[in-house]
Amino acid sequence: MPASDLRITPGDWLRLLVLGVLWGGSFFFVGVAVKEVPPMTIVFSRTLLAALLLTPLLWIYRIAIPTTWAGWRPFAVMALFNNAIPFTLTAMGQTMIPSGIASVVNAMTPVFTVLILAAFGDERLYPRRVAGVVLGFAGVLILQGFEVDFGSVQSVGILLCLAATVFYGFAALWAKRVLTGVPPVAAATFQLACSAAMMLVMSAIFDRPWQLPMPSAATWLALIGLAAISTALGFILFFQIIRGSGAGNVMLVTLLVPVTAILLGAAVLGETVTPREIVGALVIASALLIMDGRILTRLAMRRASA
After folding, report:
1. What is the pLDDT of residues 228-254, one digit of tens each?
2. By the number of CB atoms within 10 A of the CB, which of 100, 145, 178, 278 ranks highest?
3. How would DSSP label each residue in 10-76?
4. What is the pTM of this model?
């Protein structure tokens, strides 16, 4: 790993910390909203409001809106893999498991991203990445308590959130192959717009939100916070970090998200955190650090200089 890959600007360190709070907050917001609103309607609200909030940036940056299916297709596929399916799976999972545990399982995203990129020949599967993959799966087993009971509510919830991370891996593959060079604001806005269109149909078919009771003020605030803070603002910070410090560095946010989600879940939603869950989270965090490789590289550099 080149030394330049290890550098993060001071400004991006601050953005990284803020992004960890924003994305950790998304699990909290969903945890509040899912008590009164079905998962698909939550995802529709999230993507529609976020797309509307980002749309003025298209005018500011003078980005043209696609006018053909060929122009929209890359964003539609990205929307399916990066928003519509994983957002829905995670929201469904959070009806069965606490928001903190959902965020820890979500931290497995880099593990599946590495496996998928290697399977399609886009990246090499280095030994440290293999070790990280194995350790990551061990962390998920610890979270589950080594009980392979696919009929239990907790197991189904963990599997749903785990499936979401697989789709994020395919989204990374698609973005690397098709969306390279697309302005970040365009990629974020157009994929969210496509996601909102998809979820409008799915929500109408399965949730029929017009027949649901009017949500409480707390739920409305959670939906607005999810769209405006965790999604729209989160995407802007995400792409700013990529532009300034690289895609490898921005993945460190996966270590910060569970901390925020667990603290918010315990403090506001009254969720309990068991010692086993803490150990599982630490194992997954260790797996991500090994896969990232920067700690190993720093140690090797210190030995070489000594």
Report:
1. 999 999 888 887 787 777 665 666 787
2. 100
3. HHHHHHHHHHHHHHHHHHHHHHHHTTTS-HHHHHHHHHHHHHHHHHHHHHHTTPPPP-SHHHHHHHH
4. 0.86
